[in-house]
Amino acid sequence: MLIRPVLLLLTVLMCVVASGQAATGPKELAEKLNTDRSVQGSDEEKAWPVLAEYLQSLPPMPDGAMAPINEIWPGMDGWPQAVAWASQQDGLAEAVNDASDRLKLGLPYGRSAVTPESLSAGLFIDLGQDGVVMRPKFPYLKGFDRLTQWIAVESNRLIEEGKVEEGVDLLIDGIFLMRLVSDREFLYEKSWGMQRLIDLLEVLRDVMYRNTDNISAELLNRISLKDMPAIRPDRARLFIPEHDRLVCQVFLENAFHEVHGGDSRNFPRIYTDLQARSEPLSRFGARRRWESLYEGHDSLKSSLERLDHVYDDWWRRWRVNPQSAMGKAILAELSQFETINPARFAAMLVAIRDMQGLFELRDDLVFEVNAAATSAGLAAYLVDRGVYPREMRMTYGISTSKVFDQDIHDPDFSAFKYRVRDQRKPVDVGTIRVWIEPGIGLLYSVGRDGFDGIGKSHLAVDSDGDLIIWPPPDTLVRLQSASSPEK
What we know:
Structural class: mainly alpha
Number of helices: 18
Helix content: 40-55%
Largest sheet: 3 strands, antiparallel
């Protein structure tokens, strides 16, 4: 007879404990994030302790020389100012070299996790203030933006001075450093690192083409057969980030009661603040919207279960072999994220973003690694023998690896297309026409439409049409522009 009253009492106690549970603040969230393997470990394993001091004092690139990383080259406007800026950073090249050999970036999360000097320089990850967790911000990446610009300028400066191997090695160090950033556990960080890695790989192809007469075959072979294979952007070594999931859990737990569903006080306030931070003008309408959504929103338990399903599905998609029949079938299905009910799980959609863009970015990165490796091997063959090979298979096992001569845009994942021009031929790079001289080896991808356009034009990576790899199309445009009568 006492069983029902005891069960009732236990239920009441559970509700009281759940409703009175302290909210997770930025400090508690940072402690949880900083137990991850991407942060844990000795300083000898981490790049951050090596770089922090230099990033604190690295000034922005001069306004007159400011340019995106993949547009930095000695013929650009403001090059003398860029060189003067780069040459003043004593010891930075050695620091980049040291940091690139470490196992992880190792920057901890949260304001209180970095030194006062790094905090005042904006080199930290912001998880919120005054006890309130907000969507993370990453101001430290501005410092890394300056660093990658410096690497692009300084490597070109060294090569221009005749220190070719030193300049190329600095560029390779920068590539491996961005690979460490690509292992970070927030979607924004990882995407940023992967995009900068792509940018530096484009700079590498530009440098190799413009300096083919000065780079040794040994160095080009090393890039093709050793450096590029070590990047490993494949599904077995580059993983989807998990920290956005943890932050989403914190938002949900702070806004919900454990037993009864949404907390009528916390739920609208937390999600109104989240939406208003990214859309300031929406604050007034957002409050009313979230008060309305609270009534029909699924419980904490259901929300957390759906969050797990979303991430489990992303992991499943990330790991499949896209060339297999099973992989193609899985990737053709709608993802768990795409099938989320926007009313019942609105709180999740504010805290996490669709990772489809990361899948596409990984494809772009794999493409760039394959393109850089194959280009370096093609250039090594040219330097060693004085002519381009008639067929790419003549380079296999000598200066290129067949594993990296693979076009991920090709429906059958075949090798890149390759042709040696026997006469002068035009190539349209966007709206600009450039020329390929006789005897030049033309390496290209069929692009995302999977159709071989015979390398007559080069379009943007995210467009349909061929993608010229070698000679680098933007380099051809720059060199042609620099040699035109107007110049």
